[in-house]
Write a structure and sequence with these properties.
Number of domains: 1
Helix content: 25-40%
CATH architecture: 3-Layer(bba) Sandwich
Mean pLDDT: 91
Low-confidence stretches: 1-13
Strand content: 15-25%
Largest sheet: 9 strands, mixed
Radius of gyration: 22 Å
Distance between the termini: 30 Å
Strand order of the largest sheet: 1-17-13-16-15-14-5-7-6
Number of strands: 19
CATH class: Alpha Beta
Amino acid sequence: MSASEAAGAVIHRDRSFWFDSSAPYSPSPPVRGDQRFDVCILGGGITGLSTAYHLRKLDPALSVCLLESEVVGFGASGRNAGQLIVEFGGGSHAGQVKTYGASRVGDAWRYVAEGIALLAELEASEGLDFDYARTGYMKVALKAEGPKAIESYARFLRAIGQESAFEILSPAAVADELSSPLLGAALFDPRGGQFNPLKLVRGLKRLIERMGVRVFEQSPALLFKLNPGKIRVETGMGGVACDRLVLATNAYSHLIAGARQAGLSRRQIPLIVKATVTEPLPLSAWSDRGWKRRCGVNVVSDLFYSFAPTADGRILHVGGYYATSPAGHGFGAEAEWRLKDEGADHLGAFFPKLADLKTAQTWGGPISLTSDWIPHVGRAPDPRVVYAFGCWGHGMALGMHNGATLAELTLERATDRTDLWFVTRKKPNWPPDAVTTVVTNQVVAKGRKRARAIGAKLTPPLTFSV
């Protein structure tokens, strides 16, 4: 430990709190030489690992390999905020219903809820331990904005057939629960809760290896070629010839040579999201600090914040204000993913009884954004390739269920999953890079302007230094 760390300074690292607090880990060897498999999966996050798991469940005779450029969980899955919630896509909820219809949107939201059920089943049937706490979560309005956001959200949930999944909490009930001067009315959804995402993906890796899947870490897919016979994946130290290819690379997908040939290079772009975790609060002190249910709290506002307790008593929080679009959609110096220390001050503004909690660490990482803000799951123009892009910060349940869908698509099995509208529909591309960069920068700038305006009206007000 460095002197600055020993003195209690904020730790900024490329990887997340989950990595820095995890048990020692030895990566699997990289792929070397020429290998042959029936199916090759690119990406060692929740989607790729779940795809491997479901492929072997459906066909134990299938030879399956998974290539991860770093280590499993290196991307969004291991940097996740540690909440399981029921959300699908982004943008306006009313806009989703207007564009796709209430019935279809309801199907999509049930798909995510079923992903949470699949994770719970995985925990029970396979004995995976990922610190899953079934606390549910809250969607909360800002007191300064009144109850309209929650009322609108409740109408949306009723319209898509989710009315039995939540209860409405009055501002008085929320104040009793959370002791927050900024938060008003809320919806409570008992589905989901908190978990350790890195323990989940590492446990799933061990499980699929026992099932016979070959996992190659530190094996970046530099390119893939859609040859007439076998598909060829090159890593620099070796290569894989396969009959079927699964792209589970989410925000990194556009970086792989071959994505353009497959018609997938402009399906998504990365957005960098940043997070902060506090030092631990002793478990014995929680009863004096509010937060009776110890559930996740997600603010329904243009000033978006998400807060959730961890298993060891910390608060992990994410602020939408700090999302950034990396220049050129790459991961260079501007994507160092560091937060200003004011994140701790904002936690104290929302929850005064937690104001003394110090920041322990900040980190960030890329989520995947599609042009219509809806996850893209399906087949490439070459039907030997299947893919899933557009998983957001609430993507772990989605990714788990996407793995089951991709497995069925790979095996050409027609099921209720493979027939879902967001799987079968034609997906839009982003415009050319120059146009996309201008558009995303404008969206980020407008979002920050709205957040600053809202923050200034709060009591106490929130200020932002960037």
